[in-house]
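Exercise 7. Predict the structure of Sigma-54-dependent Fis family transcriptional regulator from Peribacillus butanolivorans.
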Amino acid sequence: MIHLLVVDDEKEVGTFLSRLFSMKGYHVQVVNSGKEFHQIDFNQQRFDAAMIDLKLPDCDGLSLLQYLKQKQPLCKALIMTGYSTVKTAVEAMKLGASDYMEKPFVDIEVLEKQLDNLLNENDDLNQHFIHNLAKESGLIVGESLLIKELIEMAFKVAQKSVNVLIEGETGSGKEVLSRFIHSASPRSHEPFIGINCGAISESLLESELFGHEKGAFTGATQQRKGFFEIAGNGTLFLDEIADASPAIQVKLLRVLETREFMRVGSSGTLRTNARLVAASNENLQQAVEKNKFREDLFYRLNVVTLDIPALRNRKEDIPLLVRHLVERTGQADISFSNEAIEKLQQYDWPGNIRELSNVIMRTLTLADHKQEISANDILLSTNQVIPIKKDPPNANQSTENHLEEWRKQLVADFNEKDELMLEEILKEIKQLESTIGKELVMQALQKTYGNRNEAAKRLQISMRKLRYILNEKNQT
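Solution. The predicted structure, encoded as tokens:
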């Protein structure tokens, strides 16, 4: 028999829920206050599920939830919120609640189904499903407790039609997390549209988001739908939202408040049901305090905030991330030695996963078809790529200045000593030429996502020359 605990100060609600679930064969216990709740002997009475109201006369439901999860961790908790906000209900989910239900109960069948789903949920199968879905989205769970908790929370939030704000450093994977949220949501079969607010001018961004009418501005030769319209019932991801201009912020606020917008050059109103997921590498709360971001827009976006941990705070995940990145290049037969992995874990990764991805691609590109990557094969920064033995006075200078300083040093040394090992220097210059060539090819491959034809076109060389530079001399 299912044992259900109901905690609600409204006796009518408690009586209704008791009758409803007793008819389903549950054993239901109702308490109307925090005092009655703490009179329960949780060491003797086991509960399969609990429905807890967040607003009680003598305490708040969050404290009761925490106490319950300490005493009975396996008890599924459904939070009921009538007076509190959705944001508080989401906070309850972070503390261990499985789900929440808004009061008053509009659809009893939905409430029954929600509780039944929690009770029938297999935690192991659910975890397996979440991890597989994350991997399909390009999100690697790994061993870090921080990332595991983040993904579990993102999965719960994905089921709700609430705005989500993702914060994290550049390169930490904010767009990947947003795609996971979309894939885990009921909107997964609808469009996912992403746009970087900092990469587009204000006038163009307005047109991209809201669309425009023919003749609305110079070059508007035909009507065009905006991303809010194209997304429809799907998900719209706004990256670097902090870079949006004040005018764009005002228009975004109106959409979030009314679900309505107008195309540029039109007076007609359109509606959108798109879910908004915003991201920023800047702390928006601090941006509000500095008057760089609208406070009202921040609160509209900040229903749920997910903070992605930096890679330096989850270094235990690096081996799995490396394996994933290697497999993504189609070179699954290549492995990294223990020393190579250790070298990667000792680095702080200011560019996060994006930098790790670039390092793996650069290493594989320059590894000359090795089956095992050693620590010496890994080039953590471009400074390691240029093997100039005599450092110039200013290490922050460009490569061109770097080489010019080196040339001046060689000439000065020759004038001072009257002798020089020219053969060794020419040999080193030849090696330098080869290394720089590989580095530039590698950068072109990064920019073209591994498309060699496009990389060769950008470098204005033939495919044969590109392969030669990569020491693939036997390929035609």
